[in-house]
Task: inverse folding
């Protein structure tokens, strides 16, 4: 709801494509900054404290914003400032809870040994089930209940997450290990070429994914004259496709291994992204973005499985922070691009991003195929 709902809220409040793109950038720039400390805090204080604190803070922030927006008129300066600050603040808090949850998931994967990919596919299935409902709920609530209804629901889920997440506890790794922070994460990533090449390919791919996320609300609402609910339906359909792909990946990896499944998923995602740039109907966007996200879902299983197998537990939070930091770098850039490019020209920008995505995947998976360590890690 946060990732897909806040840009919709900005568009509904401001009716500005440029401000929607800027809000998308503001939502992601602080997230990148948060990763400089999130991994270290998780390593130092444990997952339960960080997760609970982030969810409670987000609930309070969202409720306060709902109260302010209820008292203000749309398209005013005060309302615009409120939604922009909300985008930036929720981005930070979401990433703190994300790092904590990922650390717990990694511990479960390590305990599963050779069945780690099955654990990761289940965890991703949980994520995608939530994403299946979240965007559609946001769009419907905005259309029929307004900002207060959407933000009130988001706050309720944040409070529920804090209540449930407080039961999950992992032991802190100690102050000495936590002090190493991002330096330890960078060093560990550099010592794992298989993980580094996969992350590099996904960084390039995320440029295309980020551009789609930032551009779709503008294209669908502004250019095609559809509603916020229709935008939410696109991402919910994409989540459903991704969920199916994640489930299928579990069996496919058992049979063919991580490399082949990842290479096929990368090909599907890149081809579908290129096709999105040529689409000119709502139905075309819905179908093609669903295919893109199905490929991305399988790739995420590959990344998480490799990450859980290769990164030592004592520096997992810090190394996770580094990898996700790299993966998030394209998102604020995509928001700024959408803010600067006229809506009618966004298709050309997506075409360029799709070509770069295909090249990035080709180089990364060709290199991964030659690494000796990959044969043992990904067999």
Result:
């Amino acid at each position: 709801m946060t990732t897909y709902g806040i840009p919709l809220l900005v568009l509904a409040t401001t009716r500005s494509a440029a401000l929607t793109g800027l809000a998308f950038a503001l939502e992601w720039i602080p997230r990148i900054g948060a990763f400089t400390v999130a991994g270290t805090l998780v390593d130092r204080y444990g997952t339960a404290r960080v997760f609970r604190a982030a969810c409670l803070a987000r609930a309070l922030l969202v409720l306060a914003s709902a109260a302010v927006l209820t008292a203000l008129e749309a398209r005013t300066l005060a309302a615009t400032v409120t939604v922009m600050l909300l985008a930036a603040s929720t981005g930070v808090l979401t990433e703190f809870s994300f790092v904590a949850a990922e650390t717990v998931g990694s511990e479960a994967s390590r305990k599963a040994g050779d069945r780690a990919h099955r654990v990761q596919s289940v965890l991703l299935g949980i994520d995608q089930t939530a994403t299946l409902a979240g965007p559609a709920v946001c769009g419907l609530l905005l259309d029929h209940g307004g900002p207060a209804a959407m933000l009130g629901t988001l706050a309720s889920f944040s409070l529920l997450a804090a209540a449930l997440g407080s039961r999950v506890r992992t032991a802190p790794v100690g102050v000495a290990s936590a002090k190493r922070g991002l330096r330890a994460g960078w060093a560990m990533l550099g010592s794992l070429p298989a993980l580094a090449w996969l992350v590099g390919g996904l960084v390039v791919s995320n440029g295309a994914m980020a551009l789609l996320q930032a551009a779709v609300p503008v294209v669908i609402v502004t250019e095609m004259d559809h509603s916020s609910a229709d935008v939410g339906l696109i991402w919910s359909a994409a989540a459903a496709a991704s969920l199916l792909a994640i489930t299928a990946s579990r069996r496919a990896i058992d049979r063919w291994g991580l490399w082949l499944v990842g290479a096929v998923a990368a090909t599907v995602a890149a081809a579908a992204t290129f096709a999105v740039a040529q689409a000119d109907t709502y139905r075309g966007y819905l179908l093609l973005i669903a295919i893109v996200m199905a490929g991305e879902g399988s790739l995420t299983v590959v990344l998480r499985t490799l990450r859980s197998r290769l990164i030592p537990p004592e520096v997992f939070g810090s190394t996770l922070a580094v990898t996700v930091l790299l993966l998030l770098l394209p998102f604020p850039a995509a928001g700024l691009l959408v803010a600067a490019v006229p809506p009618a020209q966004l298709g050309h920008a997506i075409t360029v991003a799709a070509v770069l995505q295909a090249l990035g995947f080709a180089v990364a998976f060709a290199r991964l195929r030659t690494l000796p360590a990959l044969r043992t890690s990904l067999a």
